């Protein structure tokens, strides 16, 4: 018997590009290993869709939901770390670009065409 259950969605920041992969731990495998083939395959798909796209599971039976509830916090923690790392890199890149603009030489300076000020009068 399947139950319609939805859990709260983690905050997936739209400014952070979608992930290309995720860590699948041995404990996840061990938690799913004792399930029947169809139930295990369905839960593998649910985990993949959740980890890669943030899709909430809606059609898990009791055993599958209990297992997912145990796995979900690790998936959420890894996603939060990935997003924080991405944002930190983006901030650093932005700061580096601003510094580069400040310290970038003009075209004349790069070509050693510095103006000579002949009209300076010393008294």
UniProtKB/TrEMBL annotation:
Residues 22-93 form the DUF6291 domain. This is DUF6291 domain-containing protein. The lineage of its organism: Bacteria, Pseudomonadati, Bacteroidota, Bacteroidia, Bacteroidales. Pfam families: DUF6291.
């Amino acid at each position: 018997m399947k139950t319609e259950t939805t859990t709260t969605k983690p905050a997936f920041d739209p400014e952070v590009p979608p992930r290309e992969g995720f860590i699948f731990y041995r404990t996840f495998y061990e938690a799913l290993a004792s399930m029947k083939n169809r139930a295990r395959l369905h839960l593998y798909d649910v985990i993949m869709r959740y980890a890669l796209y943030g899709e909430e599971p809606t059609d898990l039976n009791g055993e599958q939901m209990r297992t997912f509830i145990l796995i979900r916090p690790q998936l959420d923690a890894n996603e939060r770390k990935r997003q924080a790392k991405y944002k930190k890199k983006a901030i650093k890149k932005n700061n580096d670009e601003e510094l580069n603009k400040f310290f970038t030489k003009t075209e004349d300076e790069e070509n050693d065409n510095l103006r000579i000020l002949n009209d300076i009068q010393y008294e």
